[in-house]
Amino acid sequence: MQIRLSPSMRSITISTSNNGFFDLMKVKVSARHISYRIFHIVLILALLLPFVFILTALITLEGVNNCSSFVCLGRRLGPRFLGSGDDDSMRLMRDLYKLIDQANAVEIPSGIKFPESFSEFLSEMKHNHYDAKTFAIMLKGTMENMDREVKKSRLSEQLHKHFAAISIPKGLHCLSLRLTDEYSTNALARKQLPSREDLPLLFDNSYYHFIVATDNILAASVVVGSTVRSSLNPQMIVFHVITDKKTYPGMHSWFALNPVSPAIVEVKSVHQFEWLTKENVPVLQAMESHHGVRNHYHGNHVSGIQASDNPRVFASKLQAKSPKYISLLNHLRIYLPELFPELNKVVFLDDDVVVQRDLIPLWDIDLLGKVNGAVETCKGDDGWVMSKRFRTYFNFAHPLVSKNLDPDECAWAYGMNIFDLNSWRKTQIRETYHHWLKENVNSNLTIWKLGTLPPALIAFRGHVHPIDSSWHMLGLGYQEKTNLNKVRNSAVIHYNGQCKPWLEIGYRHLQPFWTKHVNYSNEFIRNCHILQPVD
């Protein structure tokens, strides 16, 4: 077919060829009688008709001309124009959806043994020649069974992680024993820390004072070492390392034999603080002797935990049973104004952090009269780590909690805090902390069950100044999908959670940020077979 328009646009000539003969049709267009709209319609039809003719011929050859109605033809033609069809596979899928939906409402009888793999499922289907309904029910049962097995495996994994997290690795235990032995036999390991001439610096507020409380010698070495190495003015740093009585000789030996010059390091045991008496910490004493508290932290850690729990909930419940939460070292930070009466400002660091940037600028932050400079944990890109509000930590079904606290109040992080001790001494923070600890013990631990942060969240209410989140990044001990770029750019990274970087269960891709601060060639580390993790 050929279409020819006259130069004046007043006529159209259409010629078609049929068995070698030409038919001519001439349409004259008059501006007075035919509008341009009709002209365009004719033009479009002239273009479409050949395609319709060819498609109709093809469909006729395929037998579609058996359709007896235009609707039938439309149903057949439409999908072909759109590239999809209401074919057998679509009908099969609709039938399958319907069967599965019906099977979903059927309660699976107990005692039926279901296949444990897809290949086993397929083999059983072929062997037994199940009908469609039985197939759907067996599919449901198999998937539910597999789901239960996967959940049991995940819960078992969390349980093993928990016991690994609260246990002391052989290498760390060996390190403590060897260094303790060194303290008793080597005079250099017992040398005074700091030296006599540097003692006045322990109370000098022109220096920058850092505090870490821990019984983990290797972890303490990383915290102190990374802080000093990251500082632009390490000669202005004074570190106060606090430990318990049994770890003191080993901790002292380590820093005596491995100085972090030019910084000043003091190692002190809790028993060397005259202020830390039973009279000043009565609630902590009560916690350690309370039968319910002892059972919670030292008893059967699986009791009270349901197999139906979500794995994250399960892990949280297990973590809440860690004995470290009733350790005096873990509660020590609430007594900083009394333990360091001469100091004005300090930075308190947890033992599972790594410092990657100079922290001295923290002293320049104006806390606006507040006591605690901390990173808030209720907003951020990570919806798991940075979504903590009071409802995360407290039982709002308890009348004391619902009456006094707001579930939507933003939480903040322990682990890297700048404390204004002068402002702190003017408050009732310690008394409030003790009051709520006592209430929780008297309530059989039903107000909260996780650690030292909940009572601190209450005690520091109205005394917290938010600081930029780049100062402190959390979650490296439980968030495997941590953003590595943010890790690299954060001043302090915190391995809070079960998967500590010194444990076998630590995340391999996050461990190098910590292990690079460990001297694996050190004699004591090498002899205790503390090995650098291999990718």
Automatic annotation (TrEMBL):
Pfam families from the UniProt entry: Glyco_transf_8 (PF01501)
Keyword presence, Chloroplast: no
Pathway(s) of this molecule: Glycan metabolism; pectin biosynthesis
InterPro entries according to UniProt: GAUT (IPR029993), Glyco_trans_8 (IPR002495), Nucleotide-diphossugar_trans (IPR029044)
One GO term describing the cellular component: Golgi membrane
MF annotations from Gene Ontology: polygalacturonate 4-alpha-galacturonosyltransferase activity
E.C. number(s) listed in UniProt: 2.4.1.-
Domain of life the protein comes from: Eukaryota
Keywords: Cell wall biogenesis/degradation, Glycosyltransferase, Golgi apparatus, Membrane, Transferase, Transmembrane, Transmembrane helix
The protein, known as: Hexosyltransferase
Family note: Belongs to the glycosyltransferase 8 family.
Main location: Golgi
Subcellular location: Golgi apparatus membrane
Transmembrane parts of this sequence: 38-61
GO process terms (BP): cell wall organization
Keyword check for Transferase: yes
Species name: Dendrobium nobile
Membrane topology of this protein: Single-pass type II membrane protein
